[in-house]
Amino acid sequence: MEPKSYSSGERVFGPPNGTFDADWAATALGSNRPELDHPTSVRLVEQAWELLRTQGLRGERLTAALDLEPGLAAAVSAVATETAELYLDPR
Q1: pTM (predicted TM-score)
Q2: DSSP of the chain, one letter per residue?
Q3: What gap in Å lies between CA 67 and CA 38, rounded to an integer?
């Protein structure tokens, strides 16, 4: 299954610029991977965010750095990367 992008409506309710809300990101992950419970989703997006912020990893590099099965790693990486693009990158 191809990961879904956030809809513009979801962006309205996203975290403010420069912040990371693990619960919000976990909800986005859960929409693509409904088999994950919320606490697991929170833990996974927090791991990805830590790598993104401390090592500058995004996209495929972030996916490769996550110690997860490839499909799950790609889904987690996609959420973290899109969150960074939407809320951290200059427009």
Answers
A1: 0.78
A2: -PPPPPPHHHHHTSPPTT---HHHHHHHHHHH-TTS-HHHHHHHHHHHHHHHHHH---HHHHHHHS-S-HHHHHHHHHHHHHHHHHHTS--
A3: 19
